[in-house]
Design a protein that fits this description.
alpha+beta, seven-stranded antiparallel β-sheet
Length: about 130
Protein backbone atom coordinates (compact mmCIF):
# COMPACT_ATOMS: atom_id res chain seq x y z
CA UNK A 1 0.00 0.00 0.00
CA UNK A 2 1.28 3.44 -0.93
CA UNK A 3 0.19 5.45 2.11
CA UNK A 4 2.10 8.73 1.81
CA UNK A 5 4.04 11.02 -0.47
CA UNK A 6 7.25 12.40 0.99
CA UNK A 7 8.19 15.84 -0.35
CA UNK A 8 11.47 17.70 0.02
CA UNK A 9 12.08 21.16 -1.35
CA UNK A 10 14.58 23.98 -1.26
CA UNK A 11 13.03 27.42 -1.04
CA UNK A 12 14.06 31.03 -0.57
CA UNK A 13 12.57 31.72 2.87
CA UNK A 14 13.85 34.01 5.61
CA UNK A 15 12.74 31.91 8.60
CA UNK A 16 10.44 29.12 9.73
CA UNK A 17 7.38 31.35 9.61
CA UNK A 18 8.07 32.09 5.93
CA UNK A 19 8.58 28.37 5.37
CA UNK A 20 5.18 27.69 6.92
CA UNK A 21 3.61 30.12 4.43
CA UNK A 22 5.26 28.25 1.54
CA UNK A 23 3.96 24.95 2.94
CA UNK A 24 0.49 26.50 3.24
CA UNK A 25 0.60 27.55 -0.43
CA UNK A 26 1.64 24.03 -1.44
CA UNK A 27 -1.19 22.69 0.72
CA UNK A 28 -3.70 24.86 -1.15
CA UNK A 29 -2.72 23.06 -4.37
CA UNK A 30 -2.92 19.50 -3.04
CA UNK A 31 -5.85 17.50 -1.67
CA UNK A 32 -5.71 16.42 1.95
CA UNK A 33 -3.51 17.71 4.73
CA UNK A 34 0.16 18.51 4.27
CA UNK A 35 2.35 17.56 7.21
CA UNK A 36 5.28 19.91 7.80
CA UNK A 37 8.04 17.63 9.09
CA UNK A 38 11.12 19.85 9.19
CA UNK A 39 12.78 23.14 8.34
CA UNK A 40 16.51 23.82 8.28
CA UNK A 41 18.92 26.07 6.43
CA UNK A 42 20.59 24.38 3.49
CA UNK A 43 24.30 24.09 4.30
CA UNK A 44 25.39 24.35 0.67
CA UNK A 45 23.39 27.51 -0.12
CA UNK A 46 22.46 29.35 3.10
CA UNK A 47 19.97 31.57 1.27
CA UNK A 48 17.81 28.44 0.84
CA UNK A 49 16.00 26.34 3.42
CA UNK A 50 15.28 22.63 3.16
CA UNK A 51 11.64 21.81 3.86
CA UNK A 52 10.38 18.28 4.38
CA UNK A 53 6.68 17.55 3.99
CA UNK A 54 4.39 14.56 3.86
CA UNK A 55 0.92 14.13 2.39
CA UNK A 56 -1.52 11.20 2.42
CA UNK A 57 -1.80 9.09 -0.72
CA UNK A 58 -3.71 5.88 0.03
CA UNK A 59 -3.25 3.96 -3.24
CA UNK A 60 -2.94 0.19 -3.45
CA UNK A 61 -1.25 -0.32 -6.81
CA UNK A 62 2.06 1.15 -8.03
CA UNK A 63 0.36 2.45 -11.18
CA UNK A 64 -2.35 4.32 -9.25
CA UNK A 65 0.21 5.69 -6.79
CA UNK A 66 2.45 7.04 -9.53
CA UNK A 67 -0.40 8.52 -11.59
CA UNK A 68 -2.02 10.19 -8.57
CA UNK A 69 1.31 11.55 -7.34
CA UNK A 70 2.13 12.96 -10.77
CA UNK A 71 -1.28 14.59 -11.08
CA UNK A 72 -0.72 16.32 -7.73
CA UNK A 73 2.94 17.14 -8.41
CA UNK A 74 1.98 18.84 -11.71
CA UNK A 75 -0.11 21.27 -9.66
CA UNK A 76 3.07 22.42 -7.89
CA UNK A 77 5.65 22.29 -10.70
CA UNK A 78 6.32 21.16 -14.22
CA UNK A 79 8.21 19.31 -15.68
CA UNK A 80 9.32 16.47 -13.40
CA UNK A 81 12.17 14.02 -13.97
CA UNK A 82 11.25 10.50 -12.80
CA UNK A 83 13.22 7.48 -11.65
CA UNK A 84 12.81 4.30 -9.64
CA UNK A 85 15.82 3.81 -7.36
CA UNK A 86 15.05 0.25 -6.17
CA UNK A 87 12.93 -1.56 -8.76
CA UNK A 88 13.69 -5.08 -7.53
CA UNK A 89 13.28 -4.90 -3.75
CA UNK A 90 10.03 -2.90 -3.65
CA UNK A 91 8.08 -0.34 -5.58
CA UNK A 92 9.51 3.11 -5.02
CA UNK A 93 9.35 6.13 -7.29
CA UNK A 94 11.01 9.53 -7.15
CA UNK A 95 10.45 12.73 -9.07
CA UNK A 96 12.52 15.91 -9.18
CA UNK A 97 11.67 19.36 -10.47
CA UNK A 98 14.41 21.98 -10.59
CA UNK A 99 14.34 25.58 -11.71
CA UNK A 100 17.91 25.34 -12.99
CA UNK A 101 16.76 22.84 -15.65
CA UNK A 102 13.62 24.70 -16.63
CA UNK A 103 10.97 23.69 -14.09
CA UNK A 104 8.34 26.26 -13.28
CA UNK A 105 6.85 26.31 -9.77
CA UNK A 106 3.33 27.45 -8.88
CA UNK A 107 4.55 28.53 -5.44
CA UNK A 108 6.98 31.47 -5.43
CA UNK A 109 10.36 30.90 -3.83
CA UNK A 110 10.77 27.20 -4.52
CA UNK A 111 13.94 26.36 -6.44
CA UNK A 112 13.99 22.55 -6.29
CA UNK A 113 11.51 19.88 -5.22
CA UNK A 114 11.46 16.10 -4.92
CA UNK A 115 8.76 13.56 -4.17
CA UNK A 116 9.14 9.95 -3.09
CA UNK A 117 6.40 7.33 -2.97
CA UNK A 118 7.02 3.84 -1.69
CA UNK A 119 5.07 0.74 -0.71
CA UNK A 120 7.02 0.46 2.56
CA UNK A 121 5.26 1.59 5.72
CA UNK A 122 5.83 5.26 6.60
CA UNK A 123 5.42 7.09 9.89
CA UNK A 124 2.30 9.25 10.42
CA UNK A 125 2.04 12.99 9.87
CA UNK A 126 3.81 15.26 12.36
CA UNK A 127 2.77 18.95 12.38
CA UNK A 128 0.27 20.21 9.87
CA UNK A 129 0.33 23.49 8.05
CA UNK A 130 -2.11 24.62 5.40
Amino acid sequence: MFETIRWRCYAHVANQRSAERVVGRIGELLPGTIGFESYKRYWKFPELAELRLVSPLGCSSPEDALLTTLQWAWRVATPWSLNSPEPVARHEFEGIASSNVGATFSVPGIEWMEFTVSDRHESPLVDTAG
